[in-house]
Amino acid sequence: MTILVKIDHLKKYFPVRRGLFRRESKVVHAVDDISLDIQEGETLGLVGESGCGKTTLARLLLRLVEPTSGSVIFNGQDVFRLEGKELRKFRREAQIIFQDPFASLNPRKTINHIVGQPFVIHGLARKDEIRKNVLEILEMVGLSPAKMFIDRLPHEFSGGQRQRIGIARAIALRPKFIVADEPVSALDMSVRSQILTLIKNLQKDLGLTYLFITHDLAVVRSLCTRVVIMYLGKILEMANVKELYGNPLHPYTKLLISATPVPNPKSARTRERVVAKGEVPSPIDLPSGCRFHPRCPYINTCATIEPELKDAGGGHLVACHLC
Amino acid sequence: MMENLLSVINLKTYFYTSMGIVKAVDDVDLRIDNGRSVGLVGESGCGKTMTAFSIMRLVPRPGRIISGKILFKDRNLLDLGEKEMRDIRGKQISMVFQDPMTYLNPVMKVKDQIAEVILLHQSESKRKAKEKKVIEVLKKVRIPSPSKVAEYYPHQLSGGMRQRILIAMALSCNPALLIADEPTTALDVTVQAQVLNLIKDLKKETGISLLLITHDLGIVADICDEVNVMYAGKIVEHADVFKLYENPLHPYTQGLLSSALSIDEFKETLTTIEGSVPDLINPPQGCRFNPRCKLARDNCRQKVPLPIEIELGHTVSCCLYG
Predict the structure, then answer these.
(1) Is residue A202 a part of any domain in this protein?
(2) Domain count, chain A
(3) Nearest-CA distance from A78 to chain B in Å?
(4) A46 within 8 A of A234, measured Cβ to Cβ
(5) What is the 3-state secondary structure (H, E, C) of chain A?
């Protein structure tokens, strides 16, 4: 398999000033030294709790923010060195689906305008062609008959339909790579599987590669090929889906799996429980050594030495002294 | 037979808006027995929160309770005066909300907020309430170093801690019924697990009855004894939790359960319910689920299905049965 995105020692720190007269200068370690490959055609799940840096990582991959250090190689080119024509080509090939379909569509523009705008920006079609293209794309995302929808405004649509519009905009220019940032967490449960099915089918039809960001391990199980578990800006574990659910190694992964509610009263009441201590610490004042050690049930040398990401066999990577 | 604590009978709560009448709660029956955990599951806008607000008699304008009865310990809450109702809220029935920050006063210390509830309902001296009782309830919800946290303001606390404070306030007067409206939706999974464990433990310790409102089928499976499934202002199915998950009868419940994803199994193709939740100003004729139902027949478009008890404790409102 070919590597589409190669992330190498990527770091993003945000400076914050606190204290009297804002003299105290500190940094938020949003993404802290992450290396990772995304293969062509796969769906890589990125899982973590709020504030773990998963959205910042996504924004870095799309060059919506500049990194503190490190590089992202997309299709053989360093994303942060792209300029002019090359950068525009990259913008066509890498797209994003946002979490909140209510906030990510301009309420004053028609669907034709919203989904057609990528063609205008990139100068790829004339006005009459744009309308034809938009109609076609709307049918692809299941808004059919498209003629009924194209001249309406976002407020006339339900949450699920709006997310379909967001997806239509993302696939309009036939990208190679799409970051889906919690695309179903704002949706009602009966609509969720509709959108997930659409995302799955589009991958088959268009040969897409996804980075699927979520906090829901149940969604990852049925949608992704590989999973990355992130905590406070670092990767703690990475493996293919079967391996991760069958043989989770890191105590944090075990904790996440045990904390995810299971829609089955029998197994919900009989399965093994791990309960975490406390809550996620601040990414400004990071814990020493392993970042998870203040909440980990099995610490020993973890408070002093930060564990490296190492291979536990068969491409199953884990950062833990105990594994 | 267990002793009945709360019975909601034919409750209707409508909202009179400029767009039309929103039938948020339309003919709802609900029963909670002593010591039971009852789940109310549904999607956003289906009326589950308004059912809870109706029980507390806190329906915001332009909403109004149109008809029905809410029997709590054999008294109809809808007949009570506002003063008597105030005696019940917080003391007999208390509520925990979804977003803890919105329901805490940002300029009041934790101890003052909790003491307020205690002073209102119990004859305690101000000093005693603040010094002893507050620490006691904070300990009860497993807050580490309670005397320190009592001096904090809400913004100094994390999301999970804030939710614990709300639970502490709700339980401070030993109510008979706790209504928890999506108590963990705003929290991360690991913290959610902590709060759910706390609720389970407190239930065991105090024997309190619980009405848990949620959209998460996993949380219901974990905590509740029985479940009510709500769709578009109506309760479509009620059963014991094990029965409901094993043998769901209503097509909506079946759809929800088969489309729910689990960490325990891989699904190649996902099952879906087509369409989206209807608008409650002009709900569909007949059964409200019929436009999305694969099994809908002509009958479903005309007749509003009434609840039928299929077996003891398992009720369904669907034209396909009976």
Answers:
(1) no
(2) 1
(3) 35
(4) no
(5) CCEEEEEEEEEEEEEEEECHHHCEEEEEEEEEEEEEEEECCCEEEEECCCCCCHHHHHHHHCCCCCCCEEEEEECCEEHHHCCHHHHHHHHHHEEEECCCCCCCCCCCCCHHHHHHHHHHHCCCCCHHHHHHHHHHHHHHCCCCCHHHHCCCCHHHCCHHHHHHHHHHHHHCCCCCEEEEECCCCCCCHHHHHHHHHHHHHHHHHHCCEEEEEECCHHHHHHHCCEEEEEECCEEEEEEEHHHHHHCCCCHHHHHHHHHCCCCCHHHHHHCCCCCCCCCCCCCCCCCCCCCCHHHCCCCCHHHCCCCCCEECCCCCEECCCCC
How many C-beta neighbours within 10 Å does residue A124 have?
A: 14
Distance CA B32, CA B225 (A): 10
| Whether the Cβ atoms of residue A215 and residue A112 lie closer than 8 Å to each other | no
Tell if the CB–CB gap between B276 and A255 is shorter than 8 Å.
Answer: no
pLDDT digits (tens, 9 = 90+) for B141-187: 988 888 899 999 999 998 889 999 999 999 988 899 999 999 998 88
Confidence category of residue A25, pLDDT binned at 50, 70, 90: confident
**ipTM associated with this complex:** 0.85
Q: Is the pLDDT of residue A188 over 90?
A: no
User: Average pLDDT for residues B101-121, to the nearest whole number?
Assistant: 89
Using only C-alpha atoms, chain A has a radius of gyration, in whole angstroms, of 21
- Domain assignment of residue A184, yes or no: no
Q: Which residue in this structure is represented by tokens 């606390």?
A: B157
Question: Which domain, by its residues, includes A319?
Answer: 253-323
At A300 the pLDDT is 67
Q: Once rounded to an integer, what is the mean pLDDT over residues B94-98? A: 91
Please say whether the beta carbons of B91 and B116 come within 8 A: no
Residue appearing with tokens 């946002």 = A98
Return the residue matching tokens 């009989």. A270
**A171 falls within a domain:** no
Residue B245 neighbours by CB distance under 10 Å: 21
Question: With contact defined as beta carbons under 8 Å apart, do B232 and B283 qualify?
Answer: yes
The dihedral built from the CA positions of residue B165, B168, B170 and B172, taken in this order, carries a sign that is negative
Q: Are B246 and B56 in contact (CB under 8 A)?
A: no
In this structure, what are the phi and psi dihedrals at residue B221, rounded to the nearest 5 degrees? -60, -35
Interchain pair A276, B222: CB under 8 A: no
| CA–CA distance, A264 with A253 (Å, rounded to integer) | 21
Computed over every residue of chain B, the mean pLDDT equals: 91
Contact A24, A10 (CB under 8 A): no
Chain A residue with the nearest C-alpha to that of B292: A190
pLDDT tens by residue, A40-85: 999 999 999 888 999 999 999 999 999 999 999 999 999 999 999 9
Q: Is the pLDDT of residue A156 over 70?
A: yes
The side-by-side arrangement of strands in the sheet containing B20-33 is B20-33, B4-17, B63-72, B75-76
- Rounded mean pLDDT of B188-206? 91
Whether residue A279 lies inside any domain: the answer is yes
Whether residues A217 and B263 touch (CB distance < 8 A) is answered with yes
Partners of residue B292 in chain A, C-beta under 8 Å: 190
Q: Which residues of A touch B221 (CB under 8 A)?
A: 261-265, 268
Contact check, Cβ <8 Å, B245/A264: yes
State the pLDDT at residue B164.
92
pLDDT 10s digits, B5-60: 999 999 999 999 998 999 999 999 999 999 999 999 998 889 999 999 999 999 99
